[in-house]
Amino acid sequence: MNKEFLKKNKVVDTQDIDKETADIPENSYQRYVELGGIINEKDYQSALDRMDKTRTLDRKNPQVRNSIQQALGIAEYAKIKLNDSENVLEPKIVLYVTLRNDAKPEDAKYHHSQMSDQRIFGEVLRMLGDADSLDKLIKTYPNISFKYEKGK
Predict the structure, then answer these.
(1) Are 1 and 100 in contact (CB under 8 A)?
(2) What pLDDT band is residue 125 in, cutting at 50, 70 and 90?
(3) CA of 94: how far to CAs of 31, 86, 91, 110, 147, in Å?
(4) Extents of the domains making up the chain
(5) Are 91 and 9 spatial neighbours (Cβ–Cβ below 8 Å)?
(6) DSSP per-residue letters across 29-81
(7) What 3 state SS string does 75-137 have?
(8) For 22, which DSSP code?
(9) Considering the chain, what percentage of its residues have pLDDT values greater than 70?
(10) Segment 88-107, tens digit of pLDDT
């Protein structure tokens, strides 16, 4: 399960948990929503489950390789530390690749595949409960709204 994956890889940073949300597990859907997340619960859980099951990323696949480079570039620009070793799966990269390469269902009006790269990376940080990195991202990209805007 994703809790084991996150604990083992020590990616959850809870230094800035508000007093109101201190009782909420950092990688729960409720915590995700508290951090401003907009992905529905079913897709949220599906993405985390797929992240948990990922044992390797196909770096030969151009789409995957491009997504990895996008995540690394965004993180580097925002001064967010990521582990880019081919021997270690960085959850932020795995989850970013998962969300970035999801196809929009035909019956969905809105889908995370329609978001910019930076917004998807923000959703990744929210899903993993990394409030400090999310704060860095928002401050680094002041001209990008990381808040949900209905109809956009």
Answers:
(1) no
(2) very high
(3) 20, 12, 5, 22, 23
(4) 2-140
(5) yes
(6) HHHHHHTT--S-HHHHHHHHHHHHH-----TTSHHHHHHHHHHHHHHHHTT--
(7) HHHCCCCCCCCCCCCCHHHHHHHHHHCCCCCCCCCCCHHHCCHHHHHHHHHHHCCCHHHHHHH
(8) T
(9) 70
(10) 788 999 999 999 887 766 77
